[in-house]
Amino acid sequence: MLGSTYGSLTTHSSPARVVACGATPPHTVHGTAAPPAGGPHADGSPAGAAGPDLDVSGRPLYAPVPDLDRFFRPGAVAVVGASDSEGRPNTGITRQLIAWAERVGARLYPVNPGRDHVFGLPCLTSVSDLPEQADLAVLLVADPVPVIGELADAKIRFAVAFASGFAETGASGAAAQDRLAEAVARTGIRLLGPNTNLNAFASFREDLDGPAIALITQSGHQGRPVFSLQELGIRLSHWAPTGNEADLETADFLSYFASRPEVGAVAAYIEGFKDGRSFLLAADRAARNKVPVVAVKVGRTEAGARTAASHTGKLTGADAVVDAAMRQFGVIRVDGLDELQDTAALLARARTPTADGVAVYSISGGTGAHFADLATAAGLTLPALSRAKQDELHQWIPDYLNVANPVDSGGHPVGDWRGRMIIDALLADPSIGVLICPITGPFPPMSDKLAQDLVDAAEQTDKLVCVVWGSPVGTEDAYRHTLLGSRRVATFRTFANCVTAVRAHLAHHRFTAGYRSPFDDAPRTPSPSARKAQDLMRPGQQLSEHAAKQLLRAYGIRVPREQLVTSAAAAVRAASLVGYPVVMKASAPQLAHKTELGLVKTGLTSASQVRDAYRELADIARHEGIELDGVLVCQMVERGVEMVVGVTADRLFGPTVTVGLGGVLVEVLRDTAVGVPPFGEDRARAMLRELRGHALLDGVRGGPPADVDALVEVVLRVQRMALDLSGELSELDINPLMVLPRGQGAVALDALAVCH
Question: Are 310 and 166 in contact (CB under 8 A)?
């Protein structure tokens, strides 16, 4: 293994891994306390986790699960602003809340000082008149702030604010939302909204069983396709329409849903994150509990980001960082609402796969080949069936048809007893974990029998059976009753959605099988390098290359032999000590683009060249009005792969680490991958595999493979620097980092650092 990701830094040639130990003290957030050390934490973190519940940068490592049971299933509900005057918006909401309260067995109390009765129920003047303590207050008032204090006096734990006109409207609305959030924070009440709706109190089917989907949406309308899955027999347990998230946010509901035994998957529509760290902690909890999370996150494009901000008043975050964060913690990101519903439905109901292999079975060679192309391009594995298995299939399928995978039955066998034999034989193959049967169109009666055989076989196996019903009509009995009536067959309407969902299913189980939370190993205290590094920081300034390289040295990152000189004579002496050939570079704070100004000279091989180069660099600097702190005389390192490793402070997630192809390629190709701390060695290696130019590290055209281990260790050391200096380091750019041939390490040839 490489040097410790988070512990004391080690040299590349002397690897070590530091394991922190200790006990996490009990903590309380919004009234939910973790048990004392010695037992597991309420958040699922391990007993005896090291140090306090904050990392080295002061950010939380664990978050308790909010107790939302009484929000979704209250004993008593107060409706403030209740009405039964026809034509008023409050009347329709009140009517729906009364019906919902009856369904969940809650006692509902209308509150409105201007009425004696609402829909026949006695109406109270104030929440202080409640005959019992209510769990939930629904606020049908334009300004909920004045009511919050009354709710606190009545010891009401939860509230919902439907009112709009807050952060989604601009600066004045944002200020009003801040006042609401402050009022809620003072009282300890948990608030849903503002700018939310009735989706949390929708009518869920009670006749469905099996694992359920829990739904989170920041725009209520966008959750309707998932909610409609109930009409296809797929169970939904909760819907959290989070609105503007003045208090309760997506992360709170994700943590709660991931801890509910009935929830098989969480589906989310997200416009922006209130807090990136909170979302990562919630996703981490879901990964620990092996609960799949499928999300549409808008904001991939500039236009989408603008729309999201105007709708919710929140930052959308740099999309590359959002994508990396989701991938690191196993959140499955999809683009469309149709993908959201199909993928969530499959993940909620499918069992753990026994193998990653996918078998494609169809009645047409063309259909099978088409689907196989799409599946393979998406990264699914279609293993060639063994010769023995092919011989077995040819008992029922003509010899001239291909049965290697995809399997083409030719059509006729599905109409009699042979159809079920073929399906059972495929499911019996140990290399196959998923059987997919695309049916491009109905062809009764054979399609009816094929559908029934697939349903019957699915009931007898632990393996996943998927059907793509391609008919545009969708009213056929084989589809509406046979396939949709099965709790074991996953039915899709498009090839693309089937491939997306199956890929997500297999990837989720691979991810969670080996998941270890990076928060368990995140550093709680600064590394020994931090003190040296902090002495180099200059608040609000960009460091010179020389100072930036000193920062790298403090974290054990190798830089070339070099000296900073202030005269031509000193440059000649330095060159003899560094060793020819040398590179000479002007060094000054705020000097970012030296090459464009002619302030870099390479391949100098003699004292006369060094003297001339020094004078030329000094003349250019004077002409450009640049005050140098000296000229660097550097060892010239030529042989290797140029990479870039850097740190950026993201507005939502804090410090992030980037790695990619370096030199001029970083600007031309923009081939980079992002890691969101904390992460370990596995994630660092995965970042390299995500690069389109990863093959350069393997060696091309006879070149030697690069020292990937050394590159990974630089990424991890840069991450540690980012965590130690999160409040002081705004940006770091090591470009190029020359990765030498395997076993020879990596050298930071240039560096730029900007302080907060």
Answer: no
423, containing H or E segment: helix 418-428
β-strands 263-270, 654-661 pairing: unpaired
Six token digits for residue 102: 């009856």
Q: Count CB neighbours of 591 within 10 A.
A: 21
Beta strand pairing call for 562-565 and 630-635: antiparallel
What does the alpha-carbon distance between residue 509 and residue 352 come to, in Å, rounded to a whole number? 7
| pLDDT-derived band at 441, boundaries 50, 70, 90 | confident
Q: How far is CA 367 from CA 411, 458, 614, 624, in A?
A: 12, 22, 70, 67
Taking CA 149 as the corner, what is the angle to CA 145 and CA 150, rounded to the nearest 5 degrees?
110
Mean of all residue pLDDT scores within the chain:
89
Pairing between strand 357-362 and 432-439? parallel
Tell me: the pLDDT tens digits for 632-654?
A: 999 999 889 999 999 999 889 99
Find tokens 């999370």 and name the residue. Answer: 293
Report the C-alpha gap between 616 and 601 in whole angstroms. Answer: 9
Q: Tokens 């236009």 label which residue?
A: 303
Rounded to 5 degrees, φ, ψ at 291 are -95, 115
| Continuous H helices in 61-114 | 69-72, 89-104
**Six token digits for residue 436:** 């997919």
| DSSP classification of residue 479 | I
Enumerate domains of the chain plus CATH numbers.
Answer: 56-195 (3.40.50.720), 208-349 (3.40.50.261), 352-514 (3.40.50.261), 561-635 (3.30.1490.20), 641-755 (3.30.470.20)
Predicted local confidence at residue 301, as pLDDT: 66
End-to-end CA distance of the chain, in Å? Answer: 34
CA–CA dist 80, 147 (Å, integer): 9
Distance CA 437, CA 562 (A): 65
- Which pairs from 3-6 meet CB under 8 Å and 24+ separation? 3/556, 3/713, 3/716, 3/717, 5/521, 5/678, 5/679, 5/680, 5/681, 5/684, 5/716, 5/719, 5/720, 6/521, 6/522, 6/523, 6/678, 6/720, 6/723
Which pLDDT value is given to residue 662?
87
DSSP 3-state of 570: helix
Question: Angle of helix 708-724 relative to helix 528-536, nearest 10 degrees?
Answer: 70
Q: Express each pLDDT in 125-135 by its tens digit.
A: 999 999 999 99
Q: Is the pLDDT of residue 42 over 50?
A: no
One-letter identity of residue 640: G
> Which of 442, 456, 463, 460 lies closest to 486, judged by CA?
456
pTM recorded for the entire structure: 0.88
Beta pairing class for 293-297 and 136-139: unpaired
Q: What is the reported pLDDT for 592?
A: 76
Tokens of 54: 């904050």
Nearest to 583 by CA among 636, 620, 640: 636
3-state secondary structure of 514: coil
Phi, psi of 240 (to 5 degrees): -115, 100
Two tokens at 345? Answer: 């439905």
- Measured CA to CA in angstroms, residue 455 lies from 54, 131, 210, 448, 489 at distances of 51, 54, 17, 11, 6
CB burial readout 497-519, b (16+ within 10 A) else e: bbbbbbbbbbbbbebbeeeebbb
- Phi/psi of residue 225, nearest 5 degrees: -60, -40
* Dihedral (CA of 195, 200, 203, 205) sign: positive
